[in-house]
Structures are given as structure tokens and as C-alpha cells.
Design brief:
The protein is of the alpha/beta class. It is 23% helix and 26% strand. The protein has a single domain, classed as CNF1/YfiH-like putative cysteine hydrolases (4-Layer Sandwich), CATH 3.60.140. It is built from six helices and 16 strands.
Length: 253
């Protein structure tokens, strides 16, 4: 089965892609293109998957630069590939042609950025903690340090858990309202009186626009509701599976 790559005209002509789970070598609960060494999948199989993903971007696995993702608000810059994930961070930017910036997700929002005119690209992993903490803004700061112009940056939010599938509790809601009461608009009523549905991609897009970038959009793919195409941490938890696969998103100059 061939790899399936979701792209956006907004990032054109920069090479990029949000990969689905199709076309990978993993099996079992990881069936497909599991690119996460943090999973309990066989490391040799994960290497094969990452090689296939890099190849789809006209690169090699040795060209990948990645970070150790920890739901932080930290972003770094790189000028060369990395043989292993760099220091703990959740955003990564480069102005070096050929370096493939790779982010892994399984419900959190993968965000790819490009300022094609300035020759700067970036990638960020934005779960709710990172998004409210400022990882998207930190990634834009990292791009600017490399010469990007914020108003020229385009960003695309890839497959992530949708509002309809993301139920949260009262404490979660209050965490956001304490930050800004206007964030109420990213929550809808849940199935129970004390439950709410959180709009992660909508919130991420809001933070990007408020940060002053040129344009931002969501691919409108829900990881939770499409098991044939996407891995999902929350779905795996609900199905009481032992682990879950990680989806890759990559971008390169």
C-alpha cells in the first residue's frame, strides 16, 4: 500500500506532508506508518517507516531533525539533521535546505509553517498544554530569529482530534477561562452536565492568527473518528489498547 500524504496549497511550493497511517511496515495495533520511537513498536520497523516518510519528501532518514516532545512551550532552531531527538522542545525551525523537520502526533495538533519568501520553515507539536502555553508563538519567534517575516508566514494545522471527539471536564474548562474568559467560545456543551467539547484545532488557529501570521488553516481531518487513516491516543485509551502509533508530519526547504 502506498503512503498517503495530506498537503495544503497554503504551504506551496515548500515540500511538506501530514502522513496518515497508510503505507507503513508496522503491524498489530501499530498497523501502518508508525513513526514513533517512543512507542513499543519494533525500532527497526519504525526506522523503515521514517525512511519511507522522508523518501516521500525527496529526502533520506538521515536528513530528519526532530525534538523530544514534552508538551512544552519551547521551540528551537536547527541547521543540520539530528541522529537522535534534540533537547526537550515542541517546536523546531530551520533555514537550512534539505533538513526535514519532523513532528509526531496522535490527537495533538501537528502544525507546519513556511515563509517561502524568506526561506524559513518550522514544525510544532501543539496539544492543549503547548497551545495555551505558547508553543505556536515560540515557534514563530524561532522562525523570526532565522529571518522570517511573521506576516509572510503561512501555517497549516494537520489531522488532530476534532471538537466532537474531545470531551473534557470542568477543571479543564476553568484552566482556559482563567487565562481568558473569551476562550469560552472554544467549548461546547458535552453529553453530561459537567462535560464539555473542546475545539483544539480552532483554538490553535486562533492563537496563530492572534500572533500575527499571514494565514492559518486546519486540514479538517479528525484523528479520533477515522481509525483506518489515523492513530489516536484517546481512541486507543477508550479501546483499552496497550499503546498507540504516532503520525508523522514533515516539512523541508
Amino acid at each position: 500500500m502506498a503512503l498517503e500524504i495530506i498537503t495544503s496549497d497554503l504551504l506551496s511550493p515548500v515540500r511538506h506532508g501530514f502522513f496518515t497511517r497508510k503505507g507503513g511496515a508496522s503491524s498489530g495495533i501499530y498497523s501502518g506508518l508508525n513513526c514513533g520511537f517512543g512507542s513499543s513498536d519494533q525500532s527497526e520497523v519504525v526506522k523503515i517507516n521514517r525512511t519511507r516518510a522522508a523518501g516521500a519528501l525527496d529526502a533520506h532518514a538521515e536528513d530528519i531533525a526532530a525534538v523530544s516532545q514534552v508538551h512544552s512551550a519551547t521551540a528551537i532552531t536547527v541547521d543540520a539533521p539530528t541522529s537522535k531527538p534534540l533537547a526537550e522542545a515542541d517546536g523546531i525551525a530551520t533555514a537550512t535546505p534539505g533538513v526535514v523537520l519532523m513532528i509526531l502526533t496522535a490527537d495533538c495538533a501537528p502544525v507546519l509553517f513556511a515563509d517561502a519568501e524568506s526561506g524559513v520553515v518550522a514544525a510544532a507539536h501543539a496539544g492543549w498544554r503547548g497551545a495555551i502555553g505558547g508553543v505556536l508563538e515560540a515557534t514563530l519567534d524561532a522562525m523570526e530569529s532565522l529571518g522570517a517575516k511573521r506576516g509572510s508566514v503561512r501555517a497549516v494545522i494537520g489531522p488532530t482530534i476534532s471538537q466532537a471527539a474531545y470531551e473534557v471536564g470542568q477543571e479543564f474548562l476553568e484552566r482556559f477561562l482563567d487565562e481568558d474568559p473569551a476562550y469560552q467560545r472554544f467549548f461546547a456543551g458535552g453529553k453530561a452536565a459537567d462535560k464539555y467539547q473542546f475545539d483544539l484545532p480552532g483554538f490553535a488557529a486562533h492563537r496563530l492568527r492572534e500572533a500575527g501570521i499571514g494565514e492559518a488553516e486546519w486540514s479538517r481531518h479528525c484523528t479520533y473518528s477515522d481509525p483506518s487513516r489515523f492513530f489516536s491516543f484517546r481512541r486507543s485509551f477508550h479501546q483499552r489498547e496497550a499503546d498507540y502509533g504516532r503520525l508523522a508530519a514533515g516539512i523541508r526547504l
